[in-house]
C-alpha cells in the first residue's frame, strides 16, 4: 500500500508533464474525460489526467503555486487515509476493538501534549463541525428535558452564544465585545429577558495579529453564570511547548477547545 501511494504521489508531483507551452492549452481540453466510454482506463492514465488537471491552468493563473513535495510526514498522513480505508473493510468486532484503541491512545497523547486533563477527543474534517458538537453538548448539559422534548424546551429560555470579537468572520451572529465588563452586562441583560447564556467562544491567537482574549477572566465569568467556555486559535499550539504564556495557559482549564494539528505541523488532510 505504501509503495503504491509513493508511486502515485511521485507521478502527481512530476513537474515535467509538459515541455511545449504552445500546445499546453490545446491539450487541456483533451485531459478532461467526456461521456462514459465503453472501456475503462488503467490507473496510470487516470493519474496522468489528474496531474494534467492540477497543472493545466498555470498559464492563465501564474499566481497559483505548483503542488509541493509533501515530504516524509506528508506521505505518512496520506498513507493513514489509505490505511483507514483498508481498516473499514474489517469485520465489525475487529473494527470496534481497533478504533477504540486508536481513539483512546490518541486522546491520551493529545491531552498530555496540550496540557488538557481528562479530555475526550472528537475528530472532524470540517473545522466548524467541532464547535457544532460543543453546542449540542452545552444544550444537553443545561436543558434537562431536551432529550424528551427536543427543541421545544428552547422556546421559554432561548439559548445565547457569545463569540469573541476576534472570532473568524461568519462564525456566528451574536458577537460580544472584548471588554469583559461589557460582556457581563450582556449576560445579565439576557438573563433578565428570560434567555439562557449557553456558550462563550473565546479566541487564543488570530492568524493576523495573534490577539488572545482574557481567557482567565472569561473562565471566572463562565463559572459564575454556568456558561460553557470554548477556546480556539493558533496560539493553542504553544501549549505543547516548555514555556507557555499565562494568557494561553488559562485555556487548559476551559470546557473545550479546537485543535488543528494539521496546519500547525504542515500535514495534509489531517482531521
From TrEMBL:
GO cellular component: Golgi apparatus
Keywords: Lyase, Pyridoxal phosphate
Needed co-factor(s): pyridoxal 5'-phosphate
Disordered as annotated region, ranges: 12-36
Annotated GO biological process: carboxylic acid metabolic process
Name this polypeptide is given: Pyridoxal dependent decarboxylase domain containing 1
Taxonomic lineage of the native organism: Eukaryota, Metazoa, Chordata, Craniata, Vertebrata
InterPro entries: GrpII_AminoAcid_Decarb, PyrdxlP-dep_de-COase, PyrdxlP-dep_Trfase, PyrdxlP-dep_Trfase_major
Family listed: Belongs to the group II decarboxylase family.
Listed Basic and acidic residues bias regions: 12-25
One of the record's GO molecular function terms: pyridoxal phosphate binding
Amino acid at each position: 500500500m505504501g509503495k503504491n501511494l509513493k508511486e502515485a504521489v511521485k507521478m502527481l508531483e512530476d513537474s515535467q508533464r509538459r515541455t511545449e507551452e504552445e500546445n499546453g492549452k490545446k491539450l487541456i481540453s483533451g485531459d478532461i474525460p467526456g461521456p462514459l466510454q465503453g472501456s475503462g482506463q488503467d490507473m496510470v492514465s487516470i493519474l496522468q489526467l489528474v496531474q494534467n488537471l492540477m497543472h493545466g491552468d498555470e498559464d492563465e493563473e501564474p499566481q497559483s503555486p505548483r503542488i509541493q513535495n509533501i515530504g516524509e510526514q506528508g506521505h505518512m498522513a496520506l498513507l493513514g487515509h489509505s490505511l483507514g480505508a483498508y481498516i473499514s473493510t474489517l469485520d465489525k468486532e475487529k473494527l470496534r476493538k481497533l478504533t477504540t484503541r486508536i481513539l483512546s491512545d490518541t486522546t491520551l497523547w493529545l491531552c498530555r501534549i496540550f496540557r488538557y486533563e481528562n479530555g475526550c477527543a472528537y475528530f472532524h474534517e470540517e473545522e466548524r463541525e467541532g464547535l457544532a458538537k460543543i453546542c449540542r453538548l452545552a444544550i444537553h448539559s443545561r436543558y434537562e428535558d431536551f432529550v424528551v422534548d427536543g427543541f421545544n424546551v428552547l422556546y421559554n429560555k432561548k439559548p445565547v452564544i457569545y463569540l469573541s470579537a476576534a472570532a473568524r468572520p461568519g462564525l456566528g451572529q451574536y458577537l460580544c465585545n472584548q471588554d469583559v465588563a461589557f460582556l457581563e452586562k450582556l449576560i445579565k441583560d439576557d438573563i433578565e429577558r428570560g434567555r439562557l447564556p449557553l456558550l462563550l467562544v473565546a479566541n487564543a491567537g488570530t492568524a493576523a495579529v495573534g490577539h488572545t482574549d482574557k481567557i482567565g477572566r472569561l473562565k471566572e465569568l463562565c463559572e459564575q453564570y454556568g456558561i460553557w467556555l470554548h477556546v480556539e486559535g493558533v496560539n493553542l499550539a504553544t501549549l505543547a511547548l516548555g514555556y507557555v504564556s499565562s494568557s494561553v495557559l488559562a485555556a487548559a482549564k476551559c470546557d473545550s477547545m479546537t485543535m488543528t494539528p494539521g496546519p500547525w505541523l504542515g500535514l495534509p488532510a489531517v482531521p
